[in-house]
# Entry
Amino acid sequence: MIGNRRKQPRGHGIHSHFVFNLVLKVFRNKISPDIVCKIENIRKKLISDRRTIMYKINAKQHISEIYQPVEVSSIENENGLTSWYDGDFDPLLADSGCLHQLFENTVENYPESFAVQFNSETLTYSELNNKANRLAHYLKSLGVGTSDYAGILLSRTPDMYIAMLGILKAGAAYIPIDPKYPAERVHFILTNCNAKIIISTSDYINKLTGLTCLSVLLDKDQNKLDFQSSLNLSVGETKVKSSDTAYVIYTSGTTGAPKGVKISHFAVCNLVRAEGKIFGVKQEDKVFQGFSVAFDASVEEIWLAFYSGATIFVGTEEIMQSGSNLSKILNDNRVTVFSTVPTLLSILTEDIPLLRLLILGGEVCPTELAKRWATSGRRMINTYGPTETTVIATYSECSPRRNVTIGKPIPNYSAYILDSDMQKVPVCAA
# Structure
């Protein structure tokens, strides 16, 4: 950048001004991101300071008309900076298929591995699959299938996972409902999505009146389920496609009224496969399932475990109310994968030596937590993403030596920062 000072006569004096010629030679794929940032910031600084720069334009023009933001795509194409915005592209992660089929593949590979641990009770993948199949066949006999929505109103027990799988295997989409919700909210959700059926137990259903949908009560209808087939339903029987809805999560909504977010099999399968690649959860892992199923973080816990052949350790209501004693419970049960929010992690006073993967999300993660928990031999990953993007959209590896950020997009995702006009913000814009 070269500045030349010129003097020109103006009236009775001399008017001084500078003419700046900004010349940048870019060598393809060899310019460093830091240089791009510095040059862009200099350019913006010059343009913003109208007292020292003479523009060859009409003085009535607005600054927004003078400065046109650099197209992010041009910088990406010329300098190989696509990694700033785009996750790794992997077509295998976006393969066709449905969520329950990922589980069925795991059943074939690890039939006798434990899928669920609930207090002292355990279920193998084969046992869980058989129970889910019986429920699926029963639901089909009731006319439940594709394009239908099925509510789940159950406490966190093995029955809850059986209900999820059974609904998906029948071709319908599941809607998890927290048993703590007031009856009015439960009614609203079931009515809003036009649920065809709800799977629950007598103690919960008896608190609801005026239900217009069918119901399956796992405590009363077990004898009907026992007579059903334990074989997987074929795609020809269910006719479910990857573009069909897999589940609906109801958020609070910006107006306070619950808002349903539909997630397709395609989207959630990409998420599960991508997280399998990023997190590296293995068959020998034990994954703590502590989030309410009405919160989409539970999708990550449940389906990442089912995809990998790991064991879900169920965080019961009693366990989730244990406070700082949760560390001891996780230690005693040899949990290796823990997904949580920073607030809960911050109250744990005891280390968890066997914990090899710690996933954080839902809140801003303080750097102090990374300094304490991102220890040698343990991966700590901060994640970010709204429900609409299928649980998470970005992730970053945490280190005790650097600040925590939301990181980069997960595979097959792109993330951009937009200004108030919904335009891409240039690289390194302040």
